[in-house]
Amino acid sequence: MSTGSSDKSSDPPTPQSPGPDPVHDLPEEVLRAGWRRFWSKREKRWYYFNKMTGESLWEMPVVHKSPHNGVPGGSDRITDPLGISVPDTPTDVRSPPPFDLKRRRDSEASITSLGSMSPSKRMKMEGPVYWNFDILSNAIIFEHPPCTMPPVHPEAESYRAQLTNKLRSQYQELCQTREGIDAPRESFNRWILERKVMDRGNDPMLPTHCAHEVSPSMYREIMSDIPVRGCRLRHPVEARKYVFKYAEAAKKMVESRNCSPDSRKIVKWSVEDIMQWLRRQNSATLEDYQERLTHLKTQCGPHLTDAAKSSVEGICQKIYHLSCESAKKIYDKHWEILKEHGIEEIQRKFEVHKRRVQCYQIHMVVSCPRLPSISYHVENNVGCLRFKGEVLTLNQNYLQKLEHLYRIHCRDDRPLENFLPRVWCLLRRYQGFADSGHDFARRWATPGRGGERSSGGNGPASQTLFGSSPNEGTGLQGALPVPVFEAVHKHFGVTFELFASPLNCYFRQYCSAFPDTDGYFGSRGPVLDFHPVSGSFEANPPFSEELLNAMAEHFERLLATSSEPLSFLVFIPEWRDPPIPALLRMENSIFKRKTVVVPAFEHEYRSGLQHVCSGSDLYHKSVHGTLVLILQNEAGFAKWGPTDERVKGLLDAYKPQGNPSPSTSASEGRRESVDGKSATESRSNSKEEKR
């Protein structure tokens, strides 16, 4: 990831642009090799950046034309990136390079990039490795404009966490005061996912600019818990108590709300009928109670929905407005910090030419100040990063993984001066899975000392994106097992993940939710903003109906507009009672080449807490089947088509490898009948192990 840097000196004079477009005002062979020109505010001179290799040079690169096709270096980086079609030519190894490497003014020493290290000198990981960064991506994209988001800063990220925690607490209070229920589990997380599908605001996490203030996801999940929150019915005694509780709550609700006389009459009559049945029945079975509960909900549900509609819509609107206010405060705070270092916001828009290039890292054009120091120490193979008393933790081998990714993708920080601050910001954004009530959380939690707040605990500091309830958020950050990644790469040419994070990615290139924190570690930004024209991709999305629908539409549009080999392997739960709209759309798509079903209990997923949990808690059995939908255009089908041999290789890779697996997580088991709800309602409160 390429960034700028700044000091407190005065603004440089306006450079004399040699043309109307100084970025692309270069010889054609230099442009084709990936070079662009940018102005360095710190050094007050032009420099050259290669979007394909990440190199930065002070002098214009010298690219010699070859007699082979007139392409620099003798081969086309797009059609022949390895130069296989070009005959060998003698090279004078004694010749010096035609240009000098760009060096930092404040550092004489530089650390060699991992990409140029020999295999014997590469980093040795401690413990098991669940990734392979030697695989290069085959993704081809159109050139895209640089990112104008402000660079991450620990002060701003800490402030974001405080306001996000407050917003989550306000959501809980609104649900309790207005509807007398707790906020539905995972509802806030899915609200963020659903809102970001349509959000056009400038905050990377909180929604600020949506077409509709009322979120369908949040509205649907609150309504499913009215008048009482659902629970799992296992025994007749529990079912009898729950039916009685639901009937009493329904009656009380219509008496206290502004309902029509007909609605009150129908609800009271239905409640009286079920009460009489409960008095007569002393030996009813669990199925009898479930049947009666379903009938009661059918009779009362529409009237209760009408009674609560305005109140629930008010909750959704209030949370959205509070989110806008919080995002504005974060924005002002962030730029206040940057302006103290003489960094100003970039207002102009960047124009790019529509050129096909190999997928390259995000280029941040806003200069990055020198970030505050982060203290770091290791306890029991767990790395602890502390900033102003707040400690974030992760396993030591995952910190090494992040360093590996950082060295590959962030070549302008070769001394790694900003590495730990950026890791802290990354963890602060993603942290919040901890639950002191579970053994795995207790094992990796770092107790606070001397007034420090530890994000391994269950206090307010442990809440951010995914909450602090038991297992909350783990269903949003699962990953495929390593053998499956190896199989899809071997048989289907997959080199790129479309739903990942720096903490759980397998390949060196991937899409993730947050380009500002993840871009330094190889992310190419959100999947809906990613437009490949060629390549083979794996998609293992989090469960959000709105996100899945947008994903399916996005993939179909990409496949329809590209004539080059393009392939998507989509992994989603086998939920068919009823099927989700995105599943129906992909199964009926003209680009669907095959649907592979992996049976329930015969495969597993890696935990969303893999960067902090122990080995015994790493894998979880899946109680549902998994569908693998293979979507390909004609060229992609010809190159990576799902032959019987390839499909067999994928299914064989899914077989458990003897990994220690804990008991099935509670979040998986929620597909079974839940207090008479339909499968669609039950899905609102549960997740497969997805991202």
Automatic annotation (TrEMBL):
Q: Report the GO molecular function annotations.
A: mRNA (2'-O-methyladenosine-N6-)-methyltransferase activity; RNA polymerase II C-terminal domain binding
Region (Disordered) residue spans:
1-27, 83-119, 444-470, 650-691
Polar residues composition-biased segments? 109-119, 460-470, 658-667
Compositional bias (Basic and acidic residues) spans? Answer: 668-691
Compositionally biased spans, kind Pro residues: 12-21
Q: Name one GO cellular component term.
A: nucleus
InterPro entries per the UniProt record, alphabetical? HSP70_C_sf, PCIF1-like, PCIF1_WW, WW_dom, WW_dom_sf
Any Pfam family from its record, for instance, is WW
Q: Which residues form the WW domain?
A: 29-63
**Protein name, as recorded:** mRNA (2'-O-methyladenosine-N(6)-)-methyltransferase-like isoform X1
Species assigned in the record:
Branchiostoma floridae
Supply the gene name. Answer: LOC118417625
